[in-house]
Amino acid sequence: MGGGVRELVTTLLDVLGLLLLAAGVGAALLPWIGWGALTVSGAVVLAGSWWAARAARPAVRAGDR
Description:
- By secondary structure, the chain is mainly alpha-helical.
- It is built from two helices and no strands.
- Helix 1 (3-33) runs antiparallel to helix 2 (37-56).
- The chain is flat and about 45 Å long.
């Protein structure tokens, strides 16, 4: 497998895992907070997206500017 294909497959699996995690959290909270659990699921997806974007950015040190 080429590097680009491997990266694509890894990214797709990461996205699928994040969506399944969000769905599981939402389903677990549904009996207690109702459809507001979708908000929690959305927050899980946004947090995962933010974390992934932050990890992909190169670190900027104070002396590198």
